[in-house]
Design a protein that fits this description.
27 strands, alpha/beta
């Protein structure tokens, strides 16, 4: 008898093998109907104890290429756990085409974790294999989970060229061939001379890929070359007509040797490193059925549930709904629409309708599958998806993802520690970038998330600029909390916290004077303009926070 997740997957497979606009249109309704029908069953699968998990992306694009990252992560693991982080998303650990100078997404050899002298170095940008394994163990000893960044879409930096037949397609419309069959010389042979046959004897050749974009015999000709006899994957993003091809040598996920090797690598990684989950790169370019099959295999092998979040970078809510349903509700997705809402609000100069900040988001409509974020390595300045949330708005955005009931929040390394780097922009000029550290406030939000962000949630999204919500606490965590923010002027809002005649303090220290609730448990909570305030009731726990202009006495 199939379980509810298999039923969902079967339902979406019946919608058709191609991701057409018509299929996308029906996805949201089908997924919502499934959620409503199985809400009791899904709730029963949640852990009994209350747990406000928080992930951290522990890297950004422009980290120094000095090989110290894994060691730094191991050294800070306990500190991060004490701050309230419960899981670490690590950068890609596998050897990429530029070796120690590669962020990791130009993947070369999945089995080289910084162990073999190939692709211009032995170590990766982040360190050696032994240091990577040690960092994972340090994360887990500190009580956190460790998530690996998995790059399966493509391979780059091949060892030799091979000749084979292709059909060239228009780069902007992969449904449109621009010429007849031809023979090209492509960089498609991956023999891994530094590693040899250690861990795996498979060598990669042109028949393991379905497309590439470079002919070494005619480098000036611009096209996406589909390998003769192959076809682009279905169930991928529909941009460019078909967005199966992204870069490098695109893996043919229908080839049995490819599927078998990726499953075997997953087993090897679990045995070698020991992980708790994965962040899946560029999944909108990969057949939507693949990762469900891959995850099934690994969970059966590991005999445990593995957390998975996919990067499907689109604001289209229908496409996100489709992917979740097609995977049987077993994969989470980054809440890309929420990021763009934050981005646009931060650019509006106080002219954004804050009542709509959650519109069209996974957080609002599919919170069970939402990994919420403010920024990441791709959206930071000078990167491919640059869409930075301006510094003044980031505290508001982090309050939204960390202090509401919905979603699994992800903190970005550069927002926590700050960043400084130089690189060329799209204008061809070099730019110097400074990103502010918001650690002090994020740590305060994490404190509130650990101890006060529980129980019923009442929303007050009733003003163009000033919005708020309250959390009334639970039996295990009885403390109440009120959050209020404004992208415009100073303001206040009467909100219910369920605690009559109780004193509340703003742990952000933006507002120094306390608030006293009335006999019905309502209080007039305030915030400054372009700011957020987080009000929690007087509690001995507040003695953990230095700098509060109050005296906390246990039992008072």
């Amino acid at each position: 008898m199939t379980n509810v997740f298999q039923q969902l997957e079967q339902r979406f497979h019946q919608l058709g093998k191609d991701l057409t606009p018509e299929v996308v249109e029906t996805a949201t309704q089908s997924l919502q109907e499934w959620l409503e029908r199985n809400i009791d069953c899904l709730a029963a699968r949640k852990p009994g104890a209350e747990f406000n998990g928080t992930m951290m992306q522990w890297f950004h694009w422009y980290l120094p290429s000095d090989g110290t990252h894994w060691n730094q992560l191991a050294d800070r693991a306990q500190e991060l756990a004490q701050a309230g982080i419960t899981a670490i998303w690590m950068p890609p650990a596998c050897k990429a085409m530029e070796g120690e100078n590669d962020v990791g997404y130009g993947i070369y050899d999945l089995y080289d974790l910084g162990e073999f002298n190939q692709s211009k170095s032995t170590r990766t940008k982040y360190g050696t294999k032994d240091e990577y394994v040690a960092a994972v163990k340090a994360i887990q000893r500190a009580g956190m989970q460790a998530y690996a960044d998995v790059v399966f879409n493509h391979k780059m930096g091949a060892d030799c060229t091979e000749e084979f037949e292709v059909v060239p397609y228009d780069r902007s419309d992969r449904n449109c061939p621009i010429d007849g069959e031809r023979t090209i010389r492509g960089w498609t042979e991956f023999s891994f001379p530094g590693r040899g046959d250690k861990y795996s004897s498979m060598k990669w050749h042109w028949w393991h890929f379905d497309a590439l974009d470079y002919d070494d015999g005619n480098p000036g000709y611009r096209a996406v070359y589909q390998v003769k006899g192959k076809s682009f994957d279905t169930k991928v993003d529909l941009r460019q007509g078909n967005y199966d091809y992204l870069m490098g040598c695109d893996l043919d996920m229908n080839h049995p040797e490819v599927r078998g090797e990726l499953k075997y690598w997953g087993e090897w990684l679990m045995n070698t490193v020991g992980l708790d989950g994965f962040r899946l790169d560029a999944i909108k370019h990969i057949n939507g059925d693949f990762f469900s099959d891959w995850l099934d295999h690994l969970e059966h092998y590991a005999e445990k549930d593995l957390f998975c979040v996919g990067e499907y970078w689109t604001e289209d809510f229908g496409s996100l709904s489709w992917y979740i349903g097609n995977a049987g509700g077993r994969l989470n997705l980054f809440d890309v629409p929420l990021h763009y809402n934050f981005h646009r609000a931060s650019l509006s100069g106080g002219n954004y309708d804050m009542r709509s900040i959650l519109d069209n988001t996974l957080m609002k409509h599919l919170p069970m599958f939402a990994v919420t974020l403010v920024d990441n390595h791709d959206t930071q300045p000078l990167q491919a998806l640059e869409s930075i949330v301006e510094s003044w708005f980031k505290p508001l955005a982090y309050a939204v993802i960390l202090l509401r009931a919905e979603g699994y929040p992800c903190i970005f390394y550069a927002d926590y520690y700050g960043a400084h780097y130089r690189d060329k922009g799209r204008d061809g000029n070099e730019h110097e970038i400074w990103l502010d550290s918001h650690r002090w406030l994020i740590d305060r939000f994490l404190f509130a998330r650990q101890y006060f962000a529980y129980g019923a949630q009442y929303d007050y999204f009733d003003h163009w600029d000033i919005i708020g919500w309250t959390r009334l606490g639970s039996e295990q965590h009885p403390g109440a909390m009120a959050v209020i923010m404004s992208d415009g002027p100073d303001g206040s809002k009467w909100m219910e916290v369920g605690k009559p005649n109780t004193t509340f303090y703003d742990i952000t220290e933006h507002i120094k004077e306390p608030v006293r609730t009335n006999q019905d448990g309502w209080g007039e909570f305030r915030c400054n303009g372009g700011s957020v305030s987080v009000w929690v009731e007087r509690d001995p726990l507040l003695s953990c926070l230095t700098g509060l202009p109050i005296e906390i006495r246990v039992g008072e």
